[in-house]
Amino acid sequence: MKDSEGDDMPIEVLLVDDSPGDVRLTQEAFREANGSIHLWVATDGVEAMAFLRHEGAHVRAPRPDFILLDLNLPKMDGREVLTHIKEDESLKTIPTVILTTSEAEVDIVKSYQLQANCYLCKPVQLDAFEGLVKSINDFWLTKVKLPQQTQSG
Amino acid sequence: MALEVLMVEDNPGDVRLIQEAFRDTDRSIHLQIASDGVEAMAYLRHEGPHAHAARPDLVLLDLNLPKMDGRQVLANIKQDDGLKTIPTVILTASHAEADIVKSYQLRANCYLCKPTHLEGFASFVKSINEFWLTKVSTMNSWSRA
After folding, report:
1. How many domains does chain A have?
2. Could you tell me the pTM of the whole model?
């Protein structure tokens, strides 16, 4: 695998969010920012774990390079999804960023305790939301070294 | 309120470049330097001359350090209930996949490679400032256990 910026390897991103409006905005902002992102969407926590574990309809799902995770989700809460990811030896190295409307200190602290890689609050303004997605791309998907797809022991 | 950043780095040239780049940002940032791993842990645990050290909002951690390796510092931070919630960003010259994976296993919040040319440092620090110190929520007021 190449180790250079701007190569053609797609970046696989899993977005776990139940709000169709936020999903749409995130999709559009990523599309504008970076053509090499494959954005996958899971709309609840159970589907997110099925995707990550290649279960059911997700047998051929790629391993995400990066996960954006909402906290308040149907079926399985984002905190529980985060716990499962970070307790799973093969999933724990995937950078998992919380993206939520909650600004509550208790949610921030709890997320870092559960090993979230970082915590971002969803802006309420449209422009600010697009700006945040762009900065996620500029920082996490451009500057940061993500672990490669190879499984690691 | 000034942001507290602890940089753990033994290369004086890199320290200088990062200091200058932070100074050029339009932010009130207290950048503290620890030049080896032992000093970093003493700072974080308020030991010796660091009794009044501020709890950092962000730690920038090199991997290859004298006295105590950056991997060990990272492991110590992330195993300490009072320190584990501090975002800890690896900042190193190493591009080795083994170092990247190991750092994420040890719960590094993210992994960045040091720029290889001078101008790179300014834009690099700019992006840390604009992302980690602007967009990211941390708990700067939280327990100083």
Report:
1. 1
2. 0.89
